[in-house]
Amino acid sequence: MDDVFNYILTDDMVVFADTLKNDSPYVAQTPRNHESIFFVTKGTLLYENGDIKEVIETGQVGYISRGSSDKSSAYLCDAVSYIAVNFSFDKGIYSPTKTLPFKTLSSKGIVYNYEKLFKDVLNHYTLKTPGYITICNGLVMQIIGYLYNEYNTDVAKYAKIQRIEAGIQYLNKHYNSPELKISDLADRVYMSEKHFRRIFFYIYNQTPYTYLQKIRINKAEVLLLYTSKNISNIALQCGFCDIYSFSHCFKKHTGMSPREYRAAHI
């Protein structure tokens, strides 16, 4: 479906953050008349739609197509929190029944791209910043682009992802530990470190260490923009040993020091 990038979003987008407690699931009373993508910020979400059941964890993205009659609930946790975007495509150009090709998708891709994009969409939508409709449309299309890349992963590459999936999940969950080593990830999938590194680079076209640093920097960007935590605390929370190594790495990736980045975006 190469025309996915020719879709045009309408201006009736709705963006919101919500929390579901384990005794209060969301159940769609009628089939959805819109598309929906969501990012789980805390906890684990169980998505059910007919025979489909998907467990979507913190840091993952879910997609719900138009026409779905579905149920979402907290799974093995007291509550699950998420940011959601409901939207539709321009009905003047495309059929109102046209949807993306994903079905339900629990992303296993480059998680560091998603959190900031979803929080930026929520921030611009909530504050109604000048040009927010255009900005939100652009951000949502970026998210769709990343999901589309995952969807089009070839069979050979997907098989390799499955081989090291446990290691990738471990990295995504423990990125904030300064003691995390690439050998720890290889051990999770019973591989030598050299073999793990080779497969990882084949899939993501970057080393596991580069991937790890990008996750840490992305998380730091979110904390700098959306919290008042001091830079030393952010450095430690993101897995850096001290503020000096954090500042050096942050400037290498963004071109600005953490302090400059925060000042430029407030």
Q: What is the second-level CATH architecture of the largest domain?
A: Sandwich
Order of SSEs: EEEEEEEEHHHHHHHHH
Strand content: 15-25%
Q: CATH superfamily membership of the largest domain, which one?
A: Regulatory protein AraC
Query: What fold name stands as the CATH topology of the largest domain?
Result: Jelly Rolls
> Treating each run of at least 4 consecutive H or I residues as one helix, how many helices?
9
- C-alpha end-to-end distance: 39 Å
Largest sheet: 4 strands, antiparallel
| Coarse shape | globular
What is the count of structural domains? 2
Reading off the top of the CATH hierarchy, the class of the largest domain is best stated as Mainly Beta
Structural class: alpha+beta
Radius of gyration: 19 Å
Neighbour order of strands in the largest sheet: 1-8-3-6
Beta strands, count: 8
List low-pLDDT spans: 92-96
Structure write-up:
This protein has a 4-stranded antiparallel sheet with strand order 1-8-3-6, with helices on one face. A 4-stranded antiparallel sheet has the order 2-7-4-5, with no helix packed on it. It has helices at 114-127, 132-151, 155-174, 182-188, 193-204, 208-226, 231-237, 243-254, 258-264; strands at residues 14-21, 26-27, 35-42, 44-49, 52-57, 61-64, 71-74, 79-87. Helix 1 runs antiparallel to helix 2 (132-151), helix 3 (155-174) packs across helix 4 (182-188) and helix 3 (155-174) packs across helix 5. The protein has 266 residues and is of the alpha+beta class. It has 2 domains: 2-151, Jelly Rolls; 155-264, Homeodomain-like (Arc Repressor Mutant, subunit A). The radius of gyration is 19 Å and the shape is globular. The protein is built from 9 helices and 8 strands. The chain is 44% helix and 18% strand.
